[in-house]
Each structure stands twice: as C-alpha cells, then as structure tokens.
Structures
1.
Amino acid sequence: MPRRQLHVSRAAGDPLRTALRELRNAPGIPGDFPPDVLAEAEAAAKAPRLPGRDDTDLPLFTIDPPGSTDLDQAMHLARRADGGYRVHYAIADVAAFVTPSGAVDAEAHRRVLTLYFPDGRVPLHPPVLSEGAASLLPGRPVPALLWRIDLDAYGRRVAAEVRRSLVRSRARLDYATAQRLIDEGTAEEPLALLRDIGRLREELEVERGGVSLNLPQQEIVEAEGSYRLVYRAPRPADAWNAQISLLAGTAAADLMTAAGTGILRTLPTAPDGAVARLRRSALALGVDWPHHVSYAALIRSLDPRLPRHAAFLQDCTTLLRGAGYTVFTDGRLPEHAVHAAVADEYAHCTAPLRRLADRYAGELCVAAVEGREPPEWVRAALAALPGEMADGGRRAGGVERESVDVVEAALLMDRVGEVFTGTVVDVREDDPATGTVHLEDPAVVARLESPGPPLPLGERLDVRLRRAYPGRDKALFAPA
C-alpha cells in the first residue's frame, strides 16, 4: 500500500492537544506512578537479583521500532555443525527487579499492559526499569531469561531450555536497517540467518495450518511538532522476527504443559459461519478465492500493499476474536489449549516489560527446566491473570482506537466538505447503508453513512467529509 502523509494543520493543533490530554486523563487510564512505586523501582534498579550464570560474551542484538527504549528481546542466531541452527533469545528478566506483592508488583497488576498514545505512553513499569535497568539496551550487562533453542536443518525445534543469565546486547537495530543489511548481503551471519530461519519457520507454519496476518499498519507519526498518519506495509524482516517470538512462545507452551502448570494464549477455531462470511467479503472486494484453496493458503497469496487485499486482510481479523488466556495447574490440561492462528499450543512470554502475563510465563518455564515447583507467588496469581489480561486488553484496544480517531479528526477538521476517493471495506449486515471507507490519500479509515441506497462493498467511491473535530466528532463521510 502506498505511504501517505497528512500533517495536522496549525488550526488543529490546540484542539488536538486538548483532545489527547483528555484521552490520557480519561477514567480508567493510569496516571503517574505513586511515590512508593517509584521509590521501590529506584532501589530495585540499583540492586537487582543477579543470576549465577554469565553469558555476556554472547553477541546479542535487538530489532525494534526506531527510538524504542523498552527492549524486551535480544537474539543471536548461529549454525550448528549438524546443519541445523541454534537460536539464543534473551528476554528481559523483570522478576529480577520486581518483588512479589511489593508496590511495583501491585501497580503492574493494576496497569496490566503498556498503553500507547500518539504523544507518549503509559508504561506498565516505572521508566527507571522499563526503559532503563531492566531493558536490553546495548552495551551493559542486564539480567535476562536466556532461551537456547536448537533447530534441525528444516527449522524444526529439537531442543529448548531457558535459564536465568547475565547478558549484554551489542547492537540495536530497527526493522528498516535490518531489512536493508540482509537484502544488500552485508549483514553479519547472526543477522543474515534471520531470513533463513524465518523462512523455514514460515514453511512449517504453512505445514501445520497456521496463519500470520501481514496487516498494513495505520501509524501515527510525530514530526516537527505535528502528527501525520501513514500506512506501512510490513517488511519481510518484521515477519521473520515475529517467527522467532512465535518459536519461543510455542517452546514455552510445551515446557509448561509438560510440567503441568502454566498459562497459555488460546484462540478457538472460527465457526463455519465466520469463514463463509469471509468468502462473501472476498467476493465483494474482488479477491479471488477458489473453493479448493484453504483460508491459510489464500492469506499467504495476498499483497498488503494493494488496497483491496489490505481491506480483506483487515476483515480477517474477525477470526481472531475470542483470543484469551487459559490457566492450568496440577497437570489438569485445558480441553481447548491450541491457538487457532498459530495452529499449536502457544504462550505469551517475550514481552514482560510491556505485558503482565509474560513475567509469569517466563517464571513457570524456568521452574520447568530446573525440575522444581513454580514459586508460590506465581501459583497464587495464576487464577486471576486471564481476567486481568482481558480487562487490560480492552483498555489498550480502546486507547488505540480512540487515538487514531482523535488524530484523524484533527487532520481533517479544516477539510469538512471536501471530496476524497476511497474503497468501501466494510458494510454492516444489519444496516447496509452504514460501513467503513478506506481512503487512499490521506491514510484514514473512517465511518461511512449513505442517506440512500446500500453501500457498494469492495468498490471505489468518491466520499464527502461531513464532520470531524478532535475529541468531539469522529471523522464521518457520505457518498459524494
């Protein structure tokens, strides 16, 4: 999809700032960290619980969005003598800094997830930890949970373990840089192998029936005191990096299920009716979906840079509804333990700086490898975690939607009455005169209401902006 930019006008600046301030101060959004939480975090940053192992000689590197400082993961990739591969994957050891039932721990359970706003973030942990002492920033030793995962020549996992260790990252890369170095052939082997391993893991995903949605992202970018919305189609390196995280997540799930206690990320299989609805959507959007082609195979054939394909991929996210967390203890495995999109048992364990459940999954995996019972503080928290994560997920999803709505309205507020061209990407089944339009320029996805005939799903349409004002009126369009 083409990259589009539109800056907030001077006139929209004050209403936008006001709307964003109101959004950050809305009910349910955590404010500043209390003094006792900050004091405990400062003390922990100076005196973490250090591991007995030292792997600081391992030349790890990170891949994150530009400017990121809350770095959860670092990796090192190597070839094995038997033709396979070895993946070292370091995950920030938040438990080395957080005392169970302490002030930081209690506040993390209140926040659950890091929240991202256009003009900042509300972190899960105090920045002295999440962007400082616990982050895998390069050039200094940091406590981590270090995974060692061996793969055969086809990318299949043959062994996995995770232990506490002291690590030191050597380099901080962003996705664009990593992609460029790999494409140019100038990447050193630990980075160059990301393509080899990533592709092998993608082939195995196809084999087991898993699906990764390469959705184009509608991003809010700050520049020179203003904001713009852009579309960014995912790079291959994004997907390869995600495969390393999925690899650790499936290894974590296997360790926990073997030990009999754990927390899984689960997703039920979509009902037949949901897939049938997607087939109707594909037909309307002009996406060719032969009956002999599976859903997973179709997804891999689509190009997210094409508007119709991008619209269909966005529609496919409806099959991800129902994802949640499932806890099991004392060997009583859940009846429905698989994540349908992964097509395997899977756990969130790679983002503990930003997601509460990952700290507990990591602790359970370390205990499983060491052949001991999980700590009591972990077992005591498990039952409540699925509910906490569901509440936090709803809050984070609401913040994301409202943030985009506010910026879209600010970008468009001085263009009410203008005509734009877009694609109708969704039409409500119960009200075919109401739907969603995906503009080509600027990067806006907004509500569309027809005063007359039903909306033409999948067709390009000239639409007129009826209203937009940040914090008061979301962008609303009508057929021109």
Note: Confidence is low (pLDDT under 50) at residues 1-12.
2.
Amino acid sequence: MPYTPAEAFPLIAAIDIGSNSIHMVLARVDQGEIRLLDRLGEKVQLAAGLDEQRNLDEAAMTRGLDCLRRYAQLIHGLPQGAVRIVATNALREARNRAVFIRRAEELLGHQVELVSGREEARLIYLGVSHSLPDAEGKRLVVDIGGGSTEFIIGERFDSLLRESQQMGCVSYSKRYFGDGKLSLARYAQAYTAARLELMSFEQAVRKLGWSEAVGSSGSIRAISQALAAGGQGNGEITPAGLAWLKRKLLKCDSLAELAIDGVKADRQSILPAGLAILEATFDALGIDSMSHTEGALREGVLYDMIGRQSHEDVRERTLSALMERYHVDLEQAARVETKALSILAQVAEPWGLNDEWHRELLSWGAKVHEIGMDIAHYHYHKHGAYILEHADLAGFARIDQQMLALLVRGHRRNIPVDRFAEFGEEGERLVRLCILLRFAILFHHIRGTQEMPEVTFHAGPRSLEAVFPAGWLEANPLTQADIEAEAQWLARVGYKLGGR
C-alpha cells in the first residue's frame, strides 16, 4: 500500500522566503494532525535589496542566505519530500533570482519553489482556514507582505477568489518613505497608489461578498497590537482605529521618531506603509472590522504537503487528536457528552443557553474533561484545565480556549466563581454549563456497567431538579449519595440541586 505524505514523513517543515521576513515551521504529524514543534522568523527585507534594474543586491542576498544557513541545521537529515520551501514576491521580481535560489538550495539541500501570486494566495488561505473555526459563510483574507498583498475570498477550506497585487510594506516604505521622512503628503501618496492597485478587482470582491474579514500578516498583527496597546478595542481593527493610529503616526516627522506602543522595534519603520495599504483596503472594499490570525503561508504549505483539505471543523480534529494523545476513555466521554447535551435541551430556555456556542462548548468540555488523568488522578481537573489553556489548539480563538479550560477546571469539587466572573455577563451562563457537565459526569459515575434511566430536568433561576423514575434513587444509593454531595458543592455558588 503506498504511503501518504503523513505516514512517510512524521516530521515535516516549511520555509517561506518572503519579501520582508523568512519564516520556518517544523512540525510533527501526530494522530493525523499537524503539531508545531518550532516556529522561526527573521526580518531580512529582501525587497529592500532590489535595485532599479530589479536585481537583488549582494547585501540582501547575504542577509537571506545567512538566515537560511541557520534554518538548515534544523532540517538537516529530513528526507526529500518532507521539506517544502516556497519563495514569494521579492524573488518573483528579482531578475537574478536564479543566483539566490541556487545558493539557497546548496545550503538547504532541498528545492526552492518560486510560487505565483495566486498560488501564494491559495496557500495563505489554506493556512488561515485551518487556524480558524470551520464556520458557514464566506471569509475575506488579506495578507500584507513585504512586496505584495494577497486578497482571498473563500468558503470553509476552498478559495473562491485569489488576487495578488504589487504593493507591500517594504516596497512601499522604500518608494514613499525611502529617505526616512514622514508626512501627510507622503502617506497620501502611498494610500493613493494602493487604491489604484485595488481598483482592478474591488468590484469583483464586493460583488462576491463575505461575512468576516481576517488579516494574516505581520503588518496587520502589528496594527492590531498597536490598537490594543492604545486602548482602541481588544485588537479588532476598525476604520476608527485606523484613523486613530494614522493621526498618532503623523505626529512624527521621521520614521526614526516612531515608537508606537505594542509594535516591535524592527517593524516601526515599515508601519506607515503597511497602514496606508490597509487603510486603502478598508476604504476600497468597505470593510467594517477585521480580526487577526497567526495562520499564514507557511502553515498553508504544511497542510498542502499532507493533503489536509477535508471539509471538517478544525476544532473537532484538534480535540480528537488531544483525546487520543492523552488516552481519554472515549466511551465514557461519549456517554457524558450525550447526557450533558440531553440535559441542555431540557433547560436551555429557562437558563438562557440557546446559542449554538453554548452547545459546542458543553460538547467540547464533555469530550476532554478527563485529559488531565494522563498526568495524575489527583487534581486531574486542574491538570486538564492547564493543558487546555496553554496548549496550541488549532482553530480555537483564545477566549474559547479559556472558557473550555475553565469548564474543565470546574467540573468537579469547588467551582471557581471568581474566574467565571471574569467573563462578565457570560460568566453566569458558563457556571450553568459547568453545572450541566458536572451532573452528566455524576450520572455516569458507574462507567457503562449499569443501565441508566430516563431523567427529567426542571430548571429555575438558581436551581436544578432531576426527576428519576419512582423508587430508582432509593434502589441506587451511590447515585443518591453523589447527588447529595453535589448539592453541597452547588450551594456554595448559590444554586440548589435536587433529585427525586
């Protein structure tokens, strides 16, 4: 039987030779899931080394090759096919790219693949789509690189529209702020140039439409971090936020003066160019808000290597891999999940748990509530919560990960209400989800060796009552004792639990 790439190469790597930075990711294929082991990135600004004849100067080549020499040590010994190296806009533009590519291949021992702008866009979208929840509706992805900007509209894991334009934070910085001076007029030139680039396809993008906009590049991350550091929301990018940051930038007369909070020192000088491109993009496409994700080209290359393009929720894949890795009792997890969701169906209305995310979170919590047992039985709920909060869980937003960790943390013994309160209005709903999970676990204390009865649940504002068949509780004293003990725990957080 022929091997799939995942079976043949349990250790894989991707290198992205970009116009601003060179990135590398090293990963293990574990339980059919990509598990990142190392992520490296260095700003070498190849695009800054392109002269008027579009030749890459020796200084830029040296910066790039020195970086690749360091990366070569990490991939030494990996077989052909386990490493994929892609080069993007700077080398697409360089007339002497063959010289750089030949020297890079000698260093790395693997082929360097020059990808087109559209192919780059496809791989970016693949990386982004595997790092976000598999939601219904179209998604607009924007990636501002050093020499080009990619625009993709896709649905789930398929890209429907892919565009790549010759504008980037390094090339525009060199063109419009090359002498280090910063002014409204220079910014306006960069903005106008970007709007002109966008005119060729902005109507097609608007016509196709999308339900969410996501940015996947270092420039967009820097803008998001600058807005968060400046108190302009929680990192979400909006037109108002862009206007605020623009005013802040233009208070400086030179790039050397820039010291924007939240932005790394080596990205300060190219921030105005990136901001001009993003502002033009917002205006041309009518974007109201944009979030940022870490998934990008190199992650897309990894997924492309192993052929991971199936239409399934990346979060479900992530949790399945986690359950297998921590040797979860799958039958018990399924029993608890089924019972928890059946209770939810009965109390969702009075307890205000009607949103789909309530059902998802409860389902996830039931599946992984025992992962901490693989570390130790003592305080296993705390071990599980720590894993869920701090692990790299592909597809999960940070806040979802924190909520899931808290649900697992509170599924036995004391419920840390102060931690739940940190989620504001949703905190009380999370407590209620936690109570449902606790009861489902209690209900299946005897693991599948006993036929369990149908139970009816009634919920009040601060109460939950379980109605068993007549005489069942008296005939099953362990469950009755469990309910009595649980009632004492819930009384501490102001809830009354009854069973009859």
Note: The chain has 21 helices and 13 strands.
3.
Amino acid sequence: MLLLKRKVGLMTFSDGREYVHKDLININKAFEQKLVEALESTGEIQVIRSNKIVNKPSVAREEAVFLNNSGAQMTIFNYAVWAFPHFSVIASKFAPPPFLLFGNINPKYPGMVGMLAAAGALDQDGTQTYRVWGDIKQKDVLRKVLAFVRAATARNMLRGQRYGLFGGRSMGMYTAVPNVDLWNKLFGIDIEHIDQLEIIEKSKKIPDQAAKSAREWLEKLTRKIHYDGKQLTPEKLELQIKSYYAVKKICEEFELDFTGIKAQPELTEHFVTMDLTEAFMNDPYDFDGPKEPIVCATEADSDGALTMQILKLISNQPVLFADLRHYDEQDDFFDLCNSGEHATFFAAKSYDPAVNLAKVELYPESFYFPAGGASVRHIAAPGEVTLARLTRKNGEYVMTVIKGEFLDFGEQKNEEKARNTQIEWPHAFAKLKISADDFLATYSSNHIHGVYGDYVEELVHFTKLLGFNMRIYA
C-alpha cells in the first residue's frame, strides 16, 4: 500500500455552562477517544485533536487555530452532548475546512440536538458542512465518515501542487489541453510547461550501468521480452529506461507532483516511445525498489492526469489510464487499451513487482511508433473498479463516474480478445453498470481512468466540495 496519511483535525464541543461542562467532561472524552481509535485503526488517518473540549468562545478560537497551525487538512466537529452552537460557528472561522459534523449515539444526553443546532447555525452563515450520525464502531457509519474524509483531504492536498506538462497538444485533442487559469482558480494547481527536449537531454546523462541493471531486472522478472532486432532491442529498451529516469529526475528538480507527456509524434517518431516511462511512473515501485506512484498521463492529457491525481489521492493506490478502444458486443464489455499507459500494478493487483511482472510481456511497438521501443503488455486483474473522468462543457467541469468490473476470461480467451485490437498493448476488459449505447451517447472523452474498489461516494463528495456538475453511471 501507499504511505499517504490524511491529517484530520478533531474538535469536541460541550455545554457553555461551566458546572454542566465539568459534569460532562468524561463523557465527552470517552466519545472522542472512541472516534479517534476508529479513525486511526484504518491506517490512513492521523488524527490531530484539539487540546481542550470546547466550552467557551475563546477555547473554540484557540483550538481551531491550533488545528490549522498543526497542518490538519479538514476538521471533524464532534457532538456527544448538548453544545452551544455558536462555539461551532466561531471554530469554523479558524479551523481548516471542509467540516464534517459527527453526532454520536448518546440517548441520555441531547447530542443529536447539539449537532443539529450547530448544523443549522452553520447553514445560515453559508458554511459548507456534511453530517454523519451513529456509532463509529459500525462499519457503515465509519464508511460514511471515511468517504468524506478522503474527498475533503484530497481536495486540500491538491492545493499548491504542481503539474508538469511535457510538450503541447497531441494529435489535435482539445480534451487533453488544460486551462491554466481554471486549474489555478478551482484546484490551486500550478502548471509548469516543459519542452520534451529536456527528456532527451536528461536521458543522455543517465549512467549506462543503471540502464543495464534495470534491463536485466526486467529480463529476470517479466514473463517475456519479445526482442525483434529492430523495433525492440536491448539498446532501445535501455534508452526507454534512461527516459524513465530522466522524467523522474525532472520531477524532482521541478518539484512536480504529477505529469503528462505529449510523446506523439515527436518522441515516438524520432527518439523512443514513452510506454515504459509512463507505466513505471504510475507504479508503486521501479527498478530500484518501492516508491510513491507519480501520476503520468500519455498524450499530455492534462484533464486525464488531473482525474488520475484525484483518484490517487482519494483511493491511495495506483491509477489506470486507457483509451475506450473497443466494445465487445458478444460479452458486453469495453476493451480499455492504450499503448503502455497501464501501470504494471494492474497485471496482478499486487504491490510486489515480481508478482505483477510475471504476468507482463514487453512487445515491440507497432507501425504507429517508428522510433520503436517496448510496449508494456498485460491483462488487468479482475475486480470491482471505479472509473472516472473530468471533462469540460461550455467552460465548466463535469465529473463522470462509472461503476464497473474488470473481467477475466481465462488465459486463452483473454488472448483472443486482445488480438481483436492490439495484442502488444495492455488491456482491461471492463463491464460497465450502464448500457454501451447510453454510455457512448453521453461520455465526452476518448480516455478514461480508474482504480480498484468502490469510490463513488468519495467522488460525489469531492465534486460537491468543488461545486461541479456530476454524471454517475452506477
């Protein structure tokens, strides 16, 4: 798994009458502790709790400032007893948003009343909140809290990030081009434009021994490398490896959080394909060991890269990039196929490279890419998936979310299905929770992105927090 930790602020509110507050202090602390333990048991949340239970306006302000200064990425307002609602309003002015109001089950005390009174006050002044009520030890209650926490922290983690755009528009795709001002305004993301020449020049400085060692690692772990003496040779594979190291180095030097590479046609015709680079940038490991995936979108698809970064921050796992290449009417699935862009993680859904690469083959690139190089080919492991894509309509963003499943037909039939399109490219056979006709009539991109698991609720929260329109196929 990835090492992403979400920093969640926590404030518990109490009665403003001193004698009542003192009588309730242990009750409040017990419910707060139960909430902390449940959140931290997930392994993905670091709770930053206020030093005091809030029972005065001054305490509300001071503790909210403390959470903000401590790096909390959102705040949970916790209610187990009646609490004066103006404490929550004051805290909301200083604590880091977004705000989740959590009401505990405590029938002997009016905690629900306290939560609703605070919610109404915050609604009146226009503060955006989300409410969850129940026993945090129940799975469905914790799931609701986690869904909002993931969305809220992902939104705030995006702010201040930097996107590296290598090259410009590829092959006339309008949907791949970012709006710099809109990204900065809506997401707080800075875009760095970088010439693809940087990849070529940086590749020259990568030591030959590093590329050779990585090639031997691939030769040892992958199922097969189909050297053909022309399009794919050990030398071209090493050049691809050097390109990967070059892009990784540029990301470090420019302090980039995610990237997109144009590649076609300049690099794919005159240098080498970026398939290996894109696959291993998105992987949770490379030739040197475990690492954090760095989202990398092919064809400089910037809204695709942004969608992938959102999915990564929400799900804490590698993200798929693919073309909607073909619809198989016989078995009712879409073949999500794209040259090299599938991280090898998807071959077996493992964080162990040896497990994934045992199912990966490197094929010579086809006539689309005369410069040659390897295509990183495999069939995505089966499982529930959430697919998504940010698109723009009349200058406004729309988040499309699709529930689906990656299918496995068995090795022989998988090969037959793959040969219907491009045998040397990676494939994910996706059965969607919507008819092909309805999907193709309304979906607004040739690219799509996804992660294993159900993250529809998280994406709904994320979209609402940003104020976007949404289309759900579930």
Note: The two ends are 27 Å apart (CA to CA).
